[in-house]
Amino acid sequence: MPAMHRFLPRSLLGQMLLAVALALLAAQTLSAVLIYRADHQRREAALISSLAFQLVADPRFEFRDGRRNGREGRRKVRIERALESPIHDGDLHDPEREAALRDVLIAQDVAIGELVVFSRKVTADSYVMRGRAGSLSGREGRWSLDGEVLLAGLKRAGNDEWLVARVPRPEHSTRALGGLILQTLLLYIALVGGLAFLLRRITRPLAALTERMSRFAGRADGVEPLEPSGPEDTRALIAAHNEMEARIAALLDEKDVMLGAIGHDLKTPLAALRVRIESVDDETERAKMAGTIEDITHSLDDILSLARVGHAKDPLERTDLAALVSAVVEEYEDLGEPVELGDTMRIALPLRATWMRRALRNLIDNALRYGGTAEVSLSRDNGYAAVCVTDNGPGIPEGEIAAMFEPFARGEVSRNRSTGGAGLGLTLARAIAEQHGGSLSLANRVENGRKVGLAAELRLPHGS
């Protein structure tokens, strides 16, 4: 079943057209079966009626035997009379037609002694061939040399003589089937084509709405609201989306203003505290106070960055991601941190370089804080550029990995305030990845059945 789903259309338009096409195919198939059965029954009735007429009426039977020189020839052929049963070895006995013919003859008050119905090749029937002798050749005429003849032998009760009637067995005609196929094609063109036109009026504005929603970042950025189009229901949906979009943008703007005010109001007293602690004589206490102020300032910067990350105003610029990764790793190497650069490859992407550096630094800081070392690599993977930061730490319990992306989540008890950070590093890194249309994932590194570290993979889409 999953393999079948891969071949099914995923769009509303495709699924609706497929449903109509399948329904029409089922209806036309049923119609074809009914037409075929009706045509078959009509032909059978005609065959049985012709045989019965010959056997009941005057035994002399006249049939038309083709055209010759533009005129229709006429040849009198008598019903064959025989003293022995006409069925020979090799003839195809037909019990169903025999039963049908018996019912017709009984209805005509014919006293049946014996009755047989069977088929044989026209060329194997000497009686028909004698009647055709010298008149026709090939496939012309009523009695085709390539066809079959249906024979009925009747011996009335109290009579020793057999009467043998013959009719040509008609070949199956494809005319009705051809007409049905043509009718189906015309219906497909008219119905499916008309439905496709109507569905386009629905799906086109829905596709535009979907694209608008996927690009919506919480700000209008000077873009006009999406113009309502399509049927009335779709127009109402687009209008409701425009109103929701406007409300969300207004709320986010208010949030940014509020956070900016909070940041300003908090940073001012923090700066004053830095000045005042210089008057503290105890150097140890002064260092603790300075560290606390630095932690608060850092946490405040993270909170403000997280609030702004989805609404960055700086444009995307095509950037060599490998060079950016190398530059960030080099910064740590210059500081003497145990950060190594693994395998990389040249990948150019449209990025906001400042934000991407922030995300990489957060991932490397986490690796150093909880694993002691960090290795950074860059590779291509199924249309994505994958930046992987690995460490040799204890990893994270499987049930807690998802919670690590939540703001202020700290995981293990050992990860206390003294280790640094406020639990916003991974949250901010993931938000930056999503800002670029990518994702961030965590996975424990396992060797020989035990954890040997943690791998953080930041994936960014690229065109090729």
TrEMBL record:
Sequence ranges assigned to domain Histidine kinase in this UniProt record: 261-464
SMART domains cross-referenced by the UniProt entry: HATPase_c, HisKA
Principal subcellular localization: membrane
The reaction(s) this protein catalyses: ATP + protein L-histidine = ADP + protein N-phospho-L-histidine
Transmembrane stretches, start-end: 176-199
Pfam families: HATPase_c
GO molecular function: ATP binding
Top enzyme category: transferase
Record's signal peptide: none
Keywords: ATP-binding, Cell inner membrane, Cell membrane, Kinase, Membrane, Nucleotide-binding, Phosphoprotein, Transferase, Transmembrane, Transmembrane helix, Two-component regulatory system
Record's protein name: histidine kinase
Subcellular location: Cell inner membrane
Origin: domain of life: Bacteria
InterPro entries with a match to the protein in the record: 2C_sensor_his_kinase, HAMP_dom, HATPase_C_sf, HATPase_dom, His_kinase_dom, HisK_dim/P_dom, HisK_dim/P_sf, Sig_transdc_His_kin-like_C
Bilayer topology annotation: Multi-pass membrane protein
Enzyme Commission code: 2.7.13.3
Originating species: Aurantiacibacter flavus
